[in-house]
Amino acid sequence: MEIKMFFDKNTSTLTYVVFDKKNKDALIIDPVLDYEPQSSTVKTESVDAVCYFIQKEKLQPRYVLETHAHADHLSGSQILKKRYPSLLVAIGKNIIEVQKVFKKVFNLPQNFPTDARQFDYLMQEEITLEVGNMKIKTFYTPGHTPACATYQIGNAIFTGDALFMPDMGTGRCDFPGGSAIDLYNSVVKKIYTLADDTKVFVGHDYMPGGRELRYQSTVGEQKANNIQLPASRSLEDFVKFRQERDATLNTPKLLFQSVQVNVDAGNLPKPQENKISYLKIPINVFKPANDKIKNVTLENL
Questions:
Q1: Cut 0.90: pTM above it
Q2: How many CB atoms lie within 10 A of CB 137?
Q3: Which of 96, 120, 131, 186 has the greatest number of CB atoms lying within 10 Å of its CB?
Q4: pLDDT tens by residue, 169-180
């Protein structure tokens, strides 16, 4: 098994191609569809780079594995599926919880499915997915979102936003359905029980302090050195820290664009009668509890 990393500097997202060089089977983890919010345009440069590598290595992509419904970038899964029609898009089965929440947030049509049928395959903890010689084991690691999953392939795990590099810590827990308690249990009681030499591949790297890009550590390094959640930290201390920290964080700039696409398995909204697709941007959905600004209407302007 070999791993090729791709980095999208605009969203600090890490995409991985995991492949068997002998059998040519490949998995793509967390692909990115480039989106420029000011002009509201999509491009496929990140997907193109992945496809170029696949073509060069003569690989056969079998699955896209989404670690969760990302809130910071649009998924490139459907672009890949169009290019490789036999490709299956997979995500943890708890995506249905996120779909139900954001169907209300975006006031999606009544017929918008919230049973995850938009995805081709739902990853489950009790089922090992076999792709050629590769075996993919799923760990549900909620906390950042209710539907986060970590995938173990050989001696490597792909943690998405649950766990970052040791000098960055963990994902935030203030999105709908997020929970610092759940994240603590996901990391300490699941990820940290794996062998210390298990390789950890993270979903983002923001290069704190201006250091060079890093994306790989080990479980042992995380347990000893994770700045936010070393193995020695108590649940109470972590929850207090995480809640205080999250209260200072800005909303991701592509939150609404990303989530409404990603809960629909990476599908862009269908074109309307004028053949143009539209994204919905709700107003004051996540305003602070002490925010006294009321919803703006023509009557109270």
A1: yes
A2: 16
A3: 186
A4: 999 999 999 999
